[in-house]
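Lab notebook, bench 4. Still working through the backlog of constructs that have no structural model yet. Next entry is a single chain of 315 residues. Request: give me the structure tokens for it.
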Amino acid sequence: MTRPNDSIPEPFSPWMLGAPLYMPAHRLDLMDIANGEKLPWLRSMIFCTEDAVSHNQIDSSLRHLGLCLQGFRETPMRYRFIRARNPEILARLLDMPGIEKIDGFVLPKFNESVFHAYFDQLQGRPFKVMPTLETKEVFEGAAMCALRQGLLQAAIFPHILMLRIGGNDLMNLLGIRKPRSLTLYDTPMGNVISQLVTIFKPHGFSLSAPVFEYLEDTETLLKEIRLDMAHGLTGKTAIHPAQVPVIEAAYAVDQEDYEMALSLSEKEAPAVFRMHNTMCEVATHQQWSKAIISRQACYGVNMPRPLDAYAELSV
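Model written out:
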């Protein structure tokens, strides 16, 4: 993936985004982070004008972001997105000088009621978008199927980088918060995620995992990441820089999985074969093997690391 004014090389894997870091648009070191002078190991970042910015900070945050945009430099393999607060804020962002220096937008509270308000503005523009599923309609399978059909339109689908699952907003609608030491999959969100995966993934959409909000509980974070991947989710947004290396280290693939994926992708592979005491079937494991190879290209092969080592991570 390159800047929006360039052609998008194929294939592009959503795994290349890694663990995007959310940060408020009024952050003073925003330009340094965008240009890689600070936190140079970030693969991607999301400058937020929504929940991370209070109502009385909107105008000053947009002014600050606009000034920073003019100082953004080309940063290969470092992807920059803006989370628009609503369609009206998106319009203001699109008018900013330098907006072509970002890769795309996160569209929060995305449902059919704002569908055209967002995409009418983006029509004919090269930006990638990541709609966030976080409204009450997410709990209604029929509403999600209708939304899927809209997103599959020929003029829209190529611009959808992935769909984001807004875990905290959905939990808020249920009046609950994930308890410490439990994963999202120990709550009603487990069923919600499963339904979203089965509605969207068979039609070619990637979905990213909700954030993990407890910074001190690396053990549960790693458990949740394993469950994210078991559900077919791609990437997990970080809320703190210390989470990024933990999340991305967990995406390295196991050696045996990688070897099986390579064998499944060979043109001369038998239809069914045994490898590492596992049945491998080309017809049914093809999508899995592609995902493993994409992950390996971004994160390499797993090198076990003691859990205690993560405690040394700092901002």
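Notes after review: The longest helix spans residues 282-299. The chain has two domains: 14-240, 255-299. Flag for follow-up if needed.
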